[in-house]
Amino acid sequence: MSKTSVDVTSLGERGKRVAIIGAGPGGILAGLALHRAGFQVKVFERHPELQPLGGAIILNATGIVILRSLGVRIDDVFAAGLPEFRRYDGRVRVNFDIDMKLMEQAGVTGWQSGMMRSELYERLLEAAPADMISTSHSFERYEENSDEVVVYFDNGQSYSADLVVGADGVMSKVREQLWGPSELKHLGIAVWLGWCELQGPDRKKIVLHHDHQVQMGYAPLRYKGRDCFEWWFVEKCAADQVEPSDPARYVREHIQHFAYPVPQILEATDTKHNLFRWVVKYRKPLKQWSKGRVTIMGDAAHPTSPYAAYGAGMAIEDGFFLAKYLAGSNLADILTLENGLRRYDDQRVDYTNQTTAFARFLGRMYHGVPAPLNRLRDLFLDHSSLPAKMIRKGVTEEAQALLRAVLEPADN
Ligand SMILES: Cc1cc2nc3c(=O)[nH]c(=O)nc-3n(C[C@H](O)[C@H](O)[C@H](O)COP(=O)(O)OP(=O)(O)OC[C@H]3O[C@@H](n4cnc5c(N)ncnc54)[C@H](O)[C@@H]3O)c2cc1C
Description:
CATH topology of the largest domain: FAD/NAD(P)-binding domain
Largest sheet: 9 strands, mixed
Number of domains: 2
Bound molecules: flavin-adenine dinucleotide
CATH class of the largest domain: Alpha Beta
Low-confidence stretches: 1-5
């Protein structure tokens, strides 16, 4: 690295320098993809250590294809299945309309895959170039001019780059500087995430069960080489609602009438260590992510409700498309850079806004309807073909079109 002024360090050769803020799954994936595309990338993380943290997540086939394409060793840490909605007693309401030929082409046996965020993170770190990530750098602000952008950190360090990518999560400071403050809103939903080791239940299905009040879903999970299941329990939740003192008992009381294997999955869970509660928050979606020499991605751009179950997957897709549309560009040239970022925005902004809006819609439909109307809604869900059509339009068609775009050879 060469010094461009007394205290600003250049991240490398002009036209190729990218500073990514935040070493979550999104930031590391973007770093990998941009590095492969020939850029000189540095990912800055505020924490002093990179710790593989987090519980179960779901990735769809697109995420798996992208990870493999970047050389991330992923095949032994996920279990794939085909999603369906069922009533609490096991009656199937909606089978997701999945193109199995496309799955074959993608090299996965199911549309969605259960894995641990911690294992995904370990594998991303393993694939990352040794000096790509700098820890103990908490981003404070940037200053931009037509030639470059300088990022400032709380440890007194500052670096110049051609592009800054904010991958700094739900509380993103990059987003705040770029697009101004926005309220983190309470969606009115809480989700409990758990996992267990269990033999017996069908490992080819991802099932989302609903009764009049709550959702209980489960998916096959591969963890530390063992066959496990991840599960999630979703309920209505007021902003000031106090967490129950005995979470396991609380969840059990709500799901004991659900069909096999729901009660068994809960019983097999070490609820002292493997059960976490999240209150779901979101921000008003943005119509544009990129401006000048700065853009955002992942949770910084689209904090997501668990109904999409897809925060990590969308962050991975963002990183892939960002690198795809910048590959071969001279980032020093502002017009070239803006053109690449426009293509990135065109690809991602509407898609993620629709996905998160549909997730919020489903969340409200299942958990926001006033109690007397619950049963009417459920009659509709049991007897109408509209929910299947809505899932096809709201989820599977667009998501599978995106997978086709990822499988296409690069056209840059
Ligand atoms: C610790 C943790 C555990 C999680 N566990 C689960 C889970 O069990 N299940 C699930 O579905 N989802 C979980 N998530 C959410 C899920 O990982 C995200 O939705 C998804 O990975 C999006 O990734 P991201 O990289 O955009 O953001 P994140 O994963 O949030 O990563 C953002 C990164 O930016 C860093 N950062 C933030 N501010 C700054 C700053 N000012 N300067 C430098 N760095 C900064 C953060 O420390 C973090 O490493 C978890 C997230 C975290 C952070």
